[in-house]
Amino acid sequence: MIPDYLTIVEAACLIEKRELSPVELTKNRLQRIEQLDGRLNSFIRVLSDEALAAAAVAEAEIAAGHYRGPLHGIPIGLKDVFETKGIPTTGHSKVMQNHVPISDAYSVKQLKRAGAIIMGKLATHEFAFGGPSFDLPWPPARNPWDTTRFTGGSSTGTGAAVAAGLVLGGLGSDTGGSIRVPAAYCGLTGMKPTYGLISRTGILPLAYSLDHAGPLAWTAEDCAILLQSLAGFDPTDLTCSNHPIPDYRRALTGNVNGLRVGLLRHFYMTDNKVNTATRVAIDAAAKKLEEMGCIVSEVQLSPLSEWTACGSIIMLAEAYAIHESNLRARFTDYGQVFRDRMALAGLLTSADYIQATRRRRELIDEFDRVMTDFDVILTAAVANEAPKLEAVGKFAIFERPLLTMPFNVTGNPAISVRSGYTEAGLPLSMQIIGKRFDDATVLRVADAYEHATPWSKRHPSL
Question: In sequence order, which residues have a C-beta less than 8 Å from that of residue 345 and are 6 or more positions away?
Fold first, then answer.
């Protein structure tokens, strides 16, 4: 009997030894989707026939001795901003409801080359920005830990599907926290890699200079496996870096002795004050890292509100530039949340954008100077556990400064990792940030912490 919850590592080990059939695993996950997703709404489109056909190919290849690696035969889901050849890619919007791409996104091609099984297209906020919304062609995704609660945005379906065990991993995009927030609320590990590490060719954009693509999975090791297949130079993406790609999984040594950790407490103690459970969990995590040999000391940056204001202005201005023509021609085809947020963007001036980009350069320089003294930074990912879905207002992302936005501004790698649970059993999370292109160290710290704590052993009861 196939367990309800399998990590990529666990499933890959069984598949490589031919103790688990990719076809049977895919059938099992399709059955689970059919049983559970009516409550979660994580999928916009399930690709049953395509997934079974790909699984049959994977099984035949493995039987013939052509094992491609740890993603071969593994069921994966795609946020519906990743273009898929011959399959609608909608951005969860009526505006692109009938958009059928002629080719796969570069990252989707990379997953297929690694032998992954694409199970379907997952819910998102409209164009990775407007949500949660109830006036779109598909309903918003719901949190498997409590279906009355928010998954976090905008990689909503990816967070829900991975947390519910419908897929073993998934892809999201992150412009201000859209991988790390769903990972935090859904009790997962979610990574925003260094800007330019993963190609964005074929991903519907929100803000060109802030957008990142990355993995959500159950563990840091699973994220490392996904990142290995995704990272690399793509000449069709002019922002993609030709930086050497290390072996991310081999970097997970479990040894963090001597690493310098900067505890960014004022972000979550004063700038966006977190609840008691989150604060206690991060304090305990810092202590655990010290016990593991890390050198932890507090660090100061400019107030969180400055980082969020800078990133939000850039995001709004760049998103408006992308959507302006459709907003003028098809305003009411957008959902209310998206179009009202974009109406704010229409009030920005070129001077606002220029000043924000100027301030961004100063903030990046500030962070780079701080990082000369540290290997990683530790801070909160979100202020509280997942809120009730109906309590998330139209302008919620502007009500308090985002703990995740600073690292979109800088482009540094950042990962959300479980740090505990509330008394009601809802996940808590923290954020680990590293130097640009030192994604391996971020993953190493996250993986070591996961192995030193029991949090990843707990699953939602559906």
Answer: 316, 317, 319, 320
